[in-house]
Amino acid sequence: MAVQTASTIDRVTELLGDDADTLLGHKSTTIDASQLHLPGPDFVDRIYSATDRNNRTLVNLQRLFDSGRLGGTGYVSILPVDQGIEHSGAASFAPNPAYFDPANIVELAVEGGCNAVASTLGVLGSVSRTYAHKIPFVVKLNHNESLTLPETYDQIQFSSVQRAYDLGAAAVGATIYFGSPESDRQIVEIGKAFEEAHQLGLATILWCYTRNSAFKADGVDYHTAADLTGQANHLGVTIEADIIKQKLPELNGGFNAIKVGKTHPLVYSELTTDHPIDLTRYQLANCYMGRAPLINSGGASAGESDLAEAVKTAVINKRAGGAGLISGRKAFQRPLADGVALLQAIQDVYLDPQITIA
């Protein structure tokens, strides 16, 4: 495990700026931390070993948690680079053309001290013999391709679980657009894929995104509402995702605003507040109280503010009880040294014992 210096908390405080007291001093009074299954060095033994996962899956989960600078802590830092399909290669890699080369993607994850690198079959397959034994691979099985007109928003499969297994992956990843017209098919497809992955001994990570134009009401976008994303997480763990990836919640009240599904007044009066840590904790509660760890996404690159935003997201996730970040564009759309520094700044939050569970 990496060694922290005494100055880490000072740097985090500086990066948080005006949000420092609000985020570092918050005490959650919603869902008590004692009810959560929190990350720790024994997480595979304490949580996963009680499940129906076979020994090979437990080995790969342990390998993932033991890799990189966060190895042995129960926290994870993953570099995801599948944006070449999701957002086009031009939009993703023009700011830093070196990352058109898959070797540079994996090298960033290695140099950055990540637990794993998540990317496409093509990216990871092209360098598998060089890197598969050096860092855990997560093969993303499906993508939303961005060339069709009129534009469509669907996750279609680009890889099989067998091919991910053959190239030496430790895990597979997938996205489901919960709430979309295609979500029923996606749930069935990915449920079957995750079943096969577990049979072959691979871990599973699910991008639990909401997607429907009707999730906007009265000029407000509820795609990142804590109640809707929480339910997406709950559906994700139902098909046995070992780890849940979710966007950081930005608001609440989606169920009531868009008139979908069912909710309960206690969600808003007792189980959440407007504080981002409490909203994120509600996301975690829907992951079987943390039996499936919650990792939040780092979001798009905004330029000079990326470092501060990444550290802020890490603080919110950790203090809520989450297990780490999966951050891509903020890291790879800049020179290697700067990308490494950003990834390690995120990791430093999880390594710092002074940043505690709220």
Description:
- By secondary structure, the protein is of the alpha/beta class.
- 43% of the residues lie in helices and 14% in strands.
- It has helices spanning 8-16, 20-24, 43-46, 55-66, 83-93, 102-111, 121-126, 128-131, 161-166, 183-200, 226-238, 254-258, 265-269, 276-285, 306-320, 329-332, 336-351; strands at residues 76-81, 116-119, 137-140, 142-143, 156-157, 171-178, 203-210, 216-217, 220-221, 243-246, 294-297, 324-326.
- The strands form 3 sheets. The protein has an 8-stranded parallel barrel with strand order 1-2-3-6-7-10-11-12, surrounded by 6 helices. The chain has a two-stranded antiparallel ribbon with strand order 4-5.
- Helix 11 (226-238) runs parallel beside helix 14 and helix 15 packs parallel to helix 17.
- The protein starts with 7 loop residues before the first helix and ends in a 7-residue tail after the last helix.
Q: What proportion of the residues is helical, as a percent range? A: 40-55%
Rg, nearest Å: 19 Å
Order of strands, widest sheet: 1-2-3-6-7-10-11-12
Arithmetic mean pLDDT: 95
Runs in which pLDDT lies below 50 for 5 or more consecutive residues are none
Q: How would you sum up the major sheet?
A: 8 strands, parallel, barrel
Based on Cα principal axes, name the global outline. globular
Q: Output the structural class.
A: alpha/beta
> What is the count of DSSP helices, taking H or I runs of 4+ residues?
17
The number of strands is: 12
Question: How large is the share of residues in beta strands?
Answer: 5-15%
Order of helices and strands: HHHHEHHEHHEEEHEHEEEHEHHHEHEHH
**C-alpha end-to-end distance:** 23 Å
Oligomer: single chain
